[in-house]
Amino acid sequence: MQGEASILVTGGGGFLGSHLCERLLAEGHHVICVDNFFTGSRGNLTALLRHPRFEVMRHDVCLPLYVECDAIYNLACPASPVHYQRDPVQTVKTNVAGAINMLGLAKRVKARIFQASTSEVYGDPEQHPQTEAYWGHVNPIGARSCYDEGKRCAETLFFDYHRQHGVEVKVARIFNTYGPRMHPNDGRVVSSFIVQALTGQDITLFGDGSQTRSFCYVDDLIEGFLRLMNSDAGLSGPVNLGNPEEFTIAELARMVVEMTGSRSRLVFRPLPQDDPRQRRPDISLARKALGWQPTVPLREGLARTIAHFDALLSRGEGGIDPGFRQAAAPPVH
Ligand SMILES: NC(=O)c1ccc[n+]([C@@H]2O[C@H](COP(=O)([O-])OP(=O)(O)OC[C@H]3O[C@@H](n4cnc5c(N)ncnc54)[C@H](O)[C@@H]3O)[C@@H](O)[C@H]2O)c1
């Protein structure tokens, strides 16, 4: 989006949404942040609330929304299994009804619209790394299906609105992303390991820790969002955005222990249902079409994330209270 524009960000109070709002404000845009604060928080927006070009609306995207805007980033959806499995029907509604409402708005106001899709559309993949041409291997009736199939249906809607109504769509398939303002206790692997290490708890690994993941630092991802949104109208996607460098879960755990100087022990538990063995993006398309690739090495991103959680813990903020030691959910990778 060139020049000064009015940009709607759904899920703007969440981890990625708050970083996106910050970046869009820094680029000189007006930002309307829409969130029902199911997993997001006003705390994520503290630094932005007084900004003259920033507006927050408490709203559930399952309901229609009428606002004027030039572009829409649709991020509203709980992203971690702990949260999206709490109310699976609501997760499907957020993905499907939310997409219909935001696409309807985009159609009415002739706005370009970006969808935060996910690597979960590939399910437990049989191809490594995954290119955008891979159709995926998803269980349609499992505990993760509300999210995986909800996101797949949202992609269908985006491409149908594009074909049927000429809406300009941009679909990003996001792979594991981490950074400051992740939820400290939502079971995502990076935040869980860091908090467990900083609080001296055992670090819980599922399986033998040899399953691999790739981790993208949030600033890199947001740069990818903007490049995709600002790309030629001919590029609708889907475009994989993530870090192709693979680490085993055990390597990540050891790195966190070393960097925090923790005495935590690694403990192993059985793998949960439908947990993918390996996931790594092929980002050739993003490299070629957007000139984009991650630039922040894992160690550097981890250092910034550890500093963030360390500060939260020392202030007793961010939902990490003294009860956290017992209350922390085991990580879902
Ligand atoms: N973080 C990742 O690694 C990752 C990976 C793949 C995809 N994504 C996608 O990116 C988006 C943002 O993820 P995140 O990590 O920032 O998660 P998050 O949970 O921090 O943010 C999601 C935001 O959406 C809001 N929300 C949920 N349901 C809503 C509804 N019905 N109406 C309005 N707001 C609603 C939440 O309150 C929250 O602020 C999600 O769509 C997620 O599926 C994230």
From TrEMBL:
Name assigned to this protein: NAD-dependent dehydratase
GO MF annotation: an example: UDP-glucuronate decarboxylase activity
Keyword set, alphabetical order: Cytoplasm, Decarboxylase, Lyase, NAD
Residue ranges of every copy of the NAD-dependent epimerase/dehydratase domain listed in the record: 7-242
Organism encoding this protein: Teichococcus deserti
Location in the cell: Cytoplasm
Reported cofactor(s): NAD(+)
BP terms from Gene Ontology: D-xylose metabolic process; UDP-D-xylose biosynthetic process
